[in-house]
Specification:
The complex is a heterodimer of chains A (419) and B (405). By secondary structure, chain A is of the alpha+beta class. Chain A has helices spanning 2-7, 59-67, 85-91, 98-101, 135-139, 173-185, 198-208, 228-243, 256-267, 269-276, 291-305, 333-350, 369-372, 375-388, 402-418; strands at 11-14, 31-34, 41-45, 50-54, 71-72, 108-114, 120-124, 148-155, 157-158, 163-170, 192-197, 218-225, 249-252, 278-281, 284-285, 309-314, 319-320, 322-326. Chain A contains 15 helices and 18 strands. With 405 residues, chain B is of the alpha+beta class. Classes of the chains: A alpha+beta (419), B alpha+beta (405). Chains A and B meet through strand 7, helix 5, helix 6, helix 8 and helix 14 of A and strand 8, helix 7, strand 10, helix 8 and helix 9 of B.
C-alpha cells in the first residue's frame, strides 16, 4: 500500500470478485489486491459468541467452521459459497434471512483495516458498541474505499432448533403484497419472506421442479424458526392472516425434503432465468406499502421498453430484485435493458426507497446517486473518504458519480505520481 | 485535560434558541459559524451530565422540533423529529403493539436529571438497553438520519427502508456522536412487534464468575434469550419473550439447561417483568445513592462477557466497587468513589489487557472536566476521529469538547 501511495497508483481491493455492482472491478492503471490467501481462522470463542477470521475466508466457510457446535454466522448472501468476508464487510452484504438477523453491519464486531498509507488500524473487537465515534459503522459498506479489511471479528449465533417454510399462492401481486403487510402487523416475525411474481414462478418451476403452483400470479415463501411447537404456533397465526386474503394455494412443508424443495426453486431463480434469456439483476428497496404500486408501474414500463421482467425479492424488507430479460445478441437490447433498470431504481427512490438494498453502488449505480442524494449529501460522503484516504487511491472510481469525484481523483493521483 | 472555565451566554438561559423546523436549525448554525460562536445542543436535557461539560456561547434546544412524521406499522418503520419525547413515541408504538427494539433506557434517576428524554438525545447518545444482545443496538435500529452540519448545511443519510447500502452509512456515524458531528433533526427507525409475553428465570446465590457462566450458557442456547443480567449478591436473570406457548417452551428448556446453576424460579407476571428489566436498563441499583450524583462515580464498561468478572475482581483489590452486569456480562456498570480521578486510571489499567472500553457516565462537573470521560483512543483512531470532526464541523462549534479525550 505504501508503495502504491508513493507511486500514485490506485488500489482496488478484491474479495472473491462476486460483487453484482462491479465493486471489485479493476479500473484503469490500478493494482488489484486480492485477499483470498488470507483464509485462516484466528480465534473461535463460543462462550463469548464470536469468531475472528482473516477476511479472505468465504462466508459459508465461517458458518461451516462453527457448525459442529451448532452455531452459524447469520448474513447469508446468495453467493455465500464463494463470496469473501472482506467483500461482505465492504458491501455490507445482506441475504434472505436478514429480516430477523440483520445484515453484515449488524453482525460485525470489529475489523483490522490497512489504510492507504500502510497503517494498520484495529476498529472494534469482541465487545459490543464503539468506544468513541462509530468508525466500524462507516467502514462497513464503504465499498473498499477506506482501506483493505484483512481481519474481522464476527458475531456467531446458536442455530435455531428448526425451521419450516410455508408456500402461498395468490391471484394478484397486490393481494400478496397486502398479505405480507398483514403478517408483519400480526406480530409474527418470520425469518424470511420471499416473493416471486408469475414470470419468476414459471421459470423456477420449469427449472427446479419445486412443485410451485403455475396458475397463480404471486407466490410467497414464508419461513419461521424454533421448536416444532413454536413453529406450529407461528404458522397458525400466519395461516389465519393469509386466509383472509383467500390464497389459491397454501402448503406447509411437512418434511425436510419438502422444505428443501420449496427453497430449491427460490434459490435457483437466477440460474433458471439465465436459461431463458440474458438478464440483469437489479437491487432497489422500497417501503413495503409501495409494493403493489411499484410492481404495477414495473409492468407498464416492461411494456414500454418491450422487455420482460421477473421479480424475485425479499418482501419483508422491501428489497426488490427485478430481473430484466434481454438478448445480448440483439443490437441495442443491452442499452435498453440498462435504461429500464435505471428507471426502476429511480422509481424506488421516488416512492421513498433507495438505489441499492444489498448489492452496493459500485460502478453500476454510481451515476444514479444524484437521484437519491443532493450535491451536498454526496460531498459530505466524499469528505469522509478524504479522511481515510486523502490521496483518493482506494477504489477511487466507485460509488460516486464520475463527475462528482473527478476533481478529487485528478487532484491527488498525478501529484502523488510526480513525487 | 484541564479547561479554563469561562462565562457562557447560554448557561443563564438568555441565549437559548428553539427552532421550529430544520431550515431554522440550519440558519442558526450558519449564523453561529459566521460569528464563531459555539453551540450546546439540547434535547430533553436528561443526559446533559454525560461527557465533558460543554461550555458554549449559545444553546440550541430541539424541544420545538417535535412530532412523528411517518409511522407505518406494516413496514415496521417510524420516522420522527429529534425533539419528539420518547414517551410520545413509545405510547404511539404501544398502540400498534410495536416497540423500538433496543429497549432505550431512562437515565433520569441515575443522573438525578429532570426533563423528558427525546428521540434525538437517545440517538445522539447511542446507548442501548438489555435487549441489545438479541435485537441489536440503537445504531442497528436507526436506518435514516437528517442533520445540519457545523457549517449549516442540511444533509441526510440512509432513508426509511431497512435494507439500504446506498452510499456510506453516516447514520451510524451520527449515532453516539453526541451531537459533535451535526445537529440531528430527524431519525428513522426500524421497529419490532412487541412480545406477547415475557418470562424471566431467576437464579440465586451465584458468584460473579458462575453467574456469567450461566448467562453464557443461556446465550449460547437456541432459546432466544433477550435479556441476561447479574446483580451481584442478589439475582442472576435470564429473559425470554414472544408468543405464549413459545415462551413456555423456551423457559422450560432453559431451566433444565441451567440446572447445574440451581433451581431457577420463573417470573411470568407482566408488570413485574416490565419493572425488573426497566430497572436493569436504567441501572436503578446504582441510582439514588446518598448524595448522588455527587458521591459515587458511575462507569459503563463494554468488554468480552467472560472478562466482566475478571475486571471487577481486579478492581476490588484497590477500589470500593459495586457492579451490575448486563448483556450476559459484556456490559458492566461500576459504582466507585468519586475521589481523585474517579477510578479512571485504575479502571483503564485493568481493562487494558482485556480489551473493551470504559465511559464515565456519572460524576460531578469538576471530575468530568479533568478526567477522560471516553476511552482514550490509539493515535491513528484519534487522528481519524479528529479528521471526521474537522469535516463535519470545521469550526468546532457543535457541543465543543464533549467527546474530547
Amino acid at each position: 500500500m505504501k508503495t502504491c501511495l508513493r507511486l500514485g497508483v490506485p488500489v482496488v481491493p478484491r474479495g472473491s470478485g462476486t460483487s453484482l455492482s462491479g465493486g471489485a472491478l479493476p479500473t484503469a492503471d490500478c493494482v488489484v489486491v486480492g485477499v483470498s490467501r488470507l483464509n485462516r481462522i484466528l480465534d473461535v470463542d463460543f462462550d463469548n459468541r464470536f469468531i475472528r477470521v482473516q477476511s479472505g475466508m468465504t462466508n459459508l466457510s465461517v458458518s461451516d467452521a462453527v457448525a459442529e457446535q451448532q452455531f452459524f454466522y447469520a448474513p447469508d448472501p446468495s453467493s455465500q459459497l464463494a463470496c469473501a468476508i472482506a467483500g461482505n464487510v465492504a458491501m455490507n452484504s445482506g441475504g434472505a434471512h436478514c429480516l430477523k438477523y440483520g445484515v453484515t453491519t449488524n453482525n460485525l464486531m470489529g475489523v483490522t483495516l490497512v489504510l492507504m498509507n500502510g497503517e494498520i488500524v484495529e476498529i472494534g473487537g469482541p465487545h459490543l458498541d464503539p468506544a468513541g465515534l462509530d468508525l466500524l459503522g462507516i467502514v462497513c459498506g464503504s465499498e473498499g474505499q477506506f482501506g483493505i479489511v484483512t481481519e474481522a471479528v464476527l458475531r456467531i449465533l446458536r442455530k435455531p432448533e428448526g425451521a419450516r417454510p410455508i408456500l402461498m399462492g395468490f391471484d394478484s401481486n397486490e393481494v400478496a403484497g397486502a398479505c405480507v403487510a398483514d403478517i408483519i402487523k400480526s406480530g409474527v416475525l418470520p425469518v424470511a419472506m420471499e416473493f416471486m411474481d408469475r414470470p419468476a414462478i414459471i421459470a423456477c418451476e420449469n427449472f427446479a421442479h419445486a412443485g410451485y403452483p403455475t396458475d397463480v400470479e404471486a407466490l410467497l415463501i414464508v419461513e419461521v424458526e424454533g421448536s416444532p411447537a413454536e413453529i406450529d404456533e407461528q404458522l397458525t397465526k400466519i395461516r389465519e392472516v393469509a386466509s383472509s386474503h383467500e390464497p389459491k394455494v397454501m402448503r406447509e412443508s411437512s418434511s425436510a425434503v419438502q422444505s428443501d424443495l420449496i427453497w430449491k426453486g427460490r434459490k435457483a431463480a437466477f440460474g433458471a432465468m439465465g436459461q431463458i434469456a440474458d438478464y440483469m439483476c437489479m437491487d432497489g428497496t422500497i417501503p413495503t406499502s409501495q409494493l403493489p404500486h411499484v410492481l404495477g408501474r414495473m409492468r407498464e414500463m416492461s411494456e414500454e421498453y418491450g422487455l420482460k421482467v421477473a421479480n424475485v425479492f425479499h418482501a419483508g424488507d422491501g428489497n426488490l430484485h427485478p430481473l430484466i430479460l434481454f438478448d445480448a445478441n440483439k443490437p441495442g437490447d443491452q442499452e435498453k435493458c440498462e435504461a429500464f433498470g435505471s428507471d426502476i431504481l429511480k422509481l424506488c427512490v421516488e416512492v421513498g426507497g433507495c438505489l441499492t438494498g444489498e448489492h452496493g453502488v459500485g460502478v453500476e449505480k454510481r451515476d444514479l446517486m444524484v437521484h437519491q442524494f443532493t450535491e451536498a449529501d454526496l460531498e459530505i460522503q466524499m469528505r469522509v473518504k478524504d479522511v481515510f484516504d486523502p490521496a483518493w487511491l482506494m477504489n477511487p472510481a466507485k460509488v460516486f458519480p464520475m463527475a462528482a469525484s473527478r476533481s478529487r481523483r485528478e487532484r491527488n493521483a498525478p501529484r502523488a505520481a510526480a513525487e | 485535560m484541564l479547561r479554563a472555565r469561562r462565562p457562557s451566554e447560554g448557561e443563564n438561559g438568555l441565549n437559548t434558541h428553539y427552532p421550529k423546523d430544520e431550515t431554522e436549525v440550519a440558519g442558526l448554525v450558519r449564523d453561529a459559524a459566521a460569528a464563531a460562536k459555539t453551540i450546546r445542543i439540547l434535547g430533553g436535557g436528561t443526559r446533559s451530565a454525560i461527557g465533558h461539560p460543554v461550555e458554549a456561547d449559545r444553546v440550541l434546544s430541539l424541544g420545538h422540533l417535535s412530532g412523528i412524521t411517518l409511522y407505518e406499522p406494516a413496514a415496521l418503520t417510524l420516522v420522527a423529529r429529534a425533539g419528539t419525547p420518547l414517551a410520545e413515541i413509545e405510547a404511539t408504538l404501544e398502540g400498534e403493539g410495536q416497540m423500538l427494539p433496543f429497549e432505550p433506557a431512562d437515565y433520569r434517576a441515575l443522573l438525578a436529571s429532570s426533563g423528558e428524554p427525546t428521540l434525538g438525545g437517545m440517538f445522539a447518545a447511542g446507548l442501548s438497553g438489555p435487549r441489545r444482545i438479541q435485537t441489536g443496538a440503537c445504531r442497528d435500529a436507526a436506518i435514516g438520519v437528517r442533520f445540519v452540519d457545523g457549517s449549516g448545511e442540511i444533509l441526510k443519510s440512509g432513508g426509511r427502508v431497512m435494507k439500504n447500502v446506498t452510499g456510506y452509512d453516516l447514520v451510524k456515524l451520527q449515532c453516539g456522536a453526541w451531537g459533535t458531528l451535526g445537529v440531528v433533526t430527524e431519525i428513522a427507525f426500524k421497529l419490532l412487534p412487541k412480545p406477547e409475553t415475557t418470562t424471566t428465570l431467576v437464579l440465586r446465590g451465584l458468584d460473579d464468575v458462575r453467574a456469567i457462566e450461566a448467562l453464557s450458557k443461556a446465550l449460547a442456547s437456541p432459546f432466544g434469550v433477550s435479556g441476561a443480567a447479574h446483580l451481584p449478591g442478589d439475582r442472576t436473570l435470564v429473559r425470554v419473550e414472544g408468543f405464549v406457548n413459545s415462551v413456555a417452551h423456551r423457559a422450560e428448556s432453559l431451566r433444565s439447561e441451567l440446572s447445574a446453576f440451581g433451581d431457577a424460579e420463573a417470573l411470568s407476571d407482566a408488570a413485574d417483568n416490565k419493572a425488573l428489566w426497566a430497572g436493569i436498563a436504567n441501572v436503578e441499583v446504582l441510582s439514588g445513592k446518598p448524595g448522588s450524583p455527587g458521591s459515587g462515580a458511575v462507569w459503563r464498561v463494554s468488554l468480552k462477557p467472560s472478562d466482566g468478572p475478571k475486571l471487577v475482581a481486579e478492581l476490588r483489590r484497590a477500589l470500593d466497587v459495586e457492579a451490575v452486569y448486563d448483556w450476559g456480562g459484556g456490559l458492566v456498570w461500576l459504582l466507585v468513589p468519586q475521589q481523585g480521578d474517579a477510578g479512571a486510571s485504575l479502571i483503564r489499567k485493568a481493562l487494558s489487557p482485556l480489551g473493551g472500553h470504559a465511559t464515565l457516565i456519572r460524576a460531578g462537573g469538576e471530575t468530568r472536566r479533568t478526567v477522560p470521560v471516553f476511552q482514550p483512543e490509539t493515535p491513528t483512531i484519534a487522528a481519524i476521529s479528529a479528521g471526521l470532526r474537522q469535516q463535519f464541523d470545521p469550526k468546532g462549534i457543535l457541543n465543543p469538547g464533549l467527546m474530547d479525550q
